[in-house]
Amino acid sequence: MENPVILGLSNQNGQMRGSVKPAGGPGGGGGGSQTTQPAQVKPSSTVNNGNSQPAPTANTIIKPGDDWKKNLKLPPKDLRMRTSDVTATKGNEFEDYCLKRELLMGIFEMGWEKPSPIQEESIPIALSGRDILARAKNGTGKSGAYLIPLLERIDLKKDSIQALVIVPTRELALQVSQICIQVSKHMGGVKVMATTGGTNLRDDILRLDETVHVVIATPGRILDLIKKGVAKVNQVQMIVLDEADKLLSQDFVQMMEEILSSLSKQRQILLYSATFPLSVQKFMNSHLQKPYEINLMEELTLKGVTQYYAYVTERQKVHCLNTLFSRLQINQSIIFCNSSQRVELLAKKISQLGYSCFYIHAKMRQEHRNRVFHDFRNGLCRNLVCTDLFTRGIDIQAVNVVINFDFPKLGETYLHRIGRSGRFGHLGLAINLITYDDRFNLKARVERRLNCEQERSPIFCPLFPPCFLPYCV
């Protein structure tokens, strides 16, 4: 067997190419024809720092009497089936919220035809200026729920930072900034900046010398810029905590307290997440003023994600994975491991089996993380092996299979992992490889905890008939 070809600058860049089996095929484990050439980074204003605004398009000028909707460049209509997670709405339209026409243009050109349930509940309340504590499932439109009212309230006559969006990971910051830029592209000059750790601080300082209206940041970097007096946040009127449960965990809560203390007392706070532990309740009592509470979590898991498990030994895991690749119709898959070392070892093994894969974890250089994230989002590889770095908010519509190669230790982690599949009401699979040592986490920390909240029958069922995976119990 030949050695796998490593792409890019070094063997640590997270991109590996299988060298034995032809890519593609019915099972879909390989990269297909789209990965026959080394992945190249396409120019993008948001891949490195998210600071640039796209050039105005010709259809931003609407003459009196024009039917402005006819001039929109709409994406192809998504005809896939959607579940009630996003279709069980009250029947509202985006036009019902009296939004600026330029903002509506960006919304429709994103392919957002009608508001999802979380957007219906959240947008009018956020526009009123009230604090919000919102709980909704992964992949149901939370980003749009806060970005739409945030952009509507931006005053272009002011040259100050007016809104902060805080997220726990660099990849999520880049993703949210890209969405924000795209939605606001017709609004005539909304300046959006993404700033994260691992990037050049000098570039951020120079950028903040110019006009910035919206900053999307990770906690450590924005706090550093505030303390240096570079990021002037005294006129911030809205702060959003996306994935609030993570931001208010022990890893970040002290930073969040310091950031909040730098803002005006009149600011509006919006908290969004799929899970809310007691730490969120404590923060809410201290900082939010009569918050409007939204809870769309009658059940925890997405209706479109079918969950399976297979009992295997540690030595059988790779063989099981190989079988899944050969039998399943995979658009794109995300495979989770519990450590950076296991991520790299598994990615190497997958490439030796003949399948193309990328890998990503927090110990990689930031430029390589950016490249992997960007290329995987653009469909240049079918399989991604990662740590829990990728569990928070990452929205890649083509992902229809999530595999827990290593079973998570916490129920919240499990919930966020499987939420990478079945985005926005589409169908997906979550497959868990369970060893004898995982049985406690499966029963006590996942099944019982989630079922206790759902008050329903167990969420797991046998994976496949014995003829498919003969070692499954």
Describe the structure.
Keywords: ATP-binding, Cytoplasm, Helicase, Hydrolase, Nucleotide-binding, RNA-binding. This is RNA helicase. Its EC number is 3.6.4.13. The protein contains 15 helices and 15 strands. It is 32% helix and 15% strand. The strands form two sheets. It has an eight-stranded mixed β-sheet, sandwiched between helices. It has a seven-stranded parallel β-sheet with strand order 5-6-4-7-8-3-9. Strand 5, helix 6 and strand 6 form a beta-alpha-beta unit. It is globular. The relative contact order is 0.15. The N terminus and C terminus are likely disordered. The protein has 473 residues and is α/β, with parallel strands linked by helices. It folds into two domains: 192 residues, P-loop containing nucleotide triphosphate hydrolases (Rossmann fold), CATH 3.40.50.300; 212 residues, Rossmann fold (3-Layer(aba) Sandwich).
Summarize the SSE layout with pairings.
Layout: E1 5-6, E2 15-17, H1 84-87, H2 101-109, H3 117-127, E3 132-135, H4 142-152, E4 163-166, H5 170-183, E5 192-195, H6 201-208, E6 214-217, H7 219-227, E7 238-242, H8 244-247, H9 253-261, E8 268-273, H10 278-287, E9 292-295, E10 305-311, H11 317-327, E11 332-336, H12 340-352, E12 357-360, H13 366-377, E13 383-386, E14 399-404, H14 411-418, E15 428-434, H15 439-454
Parallel strand pairs: 3-8, 3-9, 4-6, 4-7, 5-6, 7-8, 10-15, 11-13, 11-14, 12-13, 14-15
Antiparallel strand pairs: 1-2, 2-12
How many helices in DSSP terms? 15
Share of residues in helices: 25-40%
Element string (H = helix, E = strand): EEHHHEHEHEHEHEHHEHEEHEHEHEEHEH
Instruction: Assign the structural class, choosing from mainly alpha, mainly beta, alpha/beta, alpha+beta, or little secondary structure.
Output: alpha/beta
Between the first and last Cα atoms, what is the distance in angstroms? 32 Å
What number is the mean pLDDT?
77
Poorly predicted ranges? 1-10, 19-60, 451-473
| Major β-sheet profile | 8 strands, mixed
Anisotropy-based shape: globular
The CATH class assignment of the largest domain is Alpha Beta
Q: What Rg is obtained from the alpha carbons, in whole angstroms? A: 22 Å
Question: What's the CATH H-level superfamily name of the largest domain?
Answer: P-loop containing nucleotide triphosphate hydrolases
Q: How large a portion of the residues is in β-strands, by DSSP E?
A: 5-15%
Strand order of the largest sheet: 1-2-12-13-11-14-15-10
Compute the number of structural domains.
Answer: 2
CATH topology of the largest domain: Rossmann fold
- The CATH architecture designation of the largest domain is 3-Layer(aba) Sandwich
Number of strands: 15
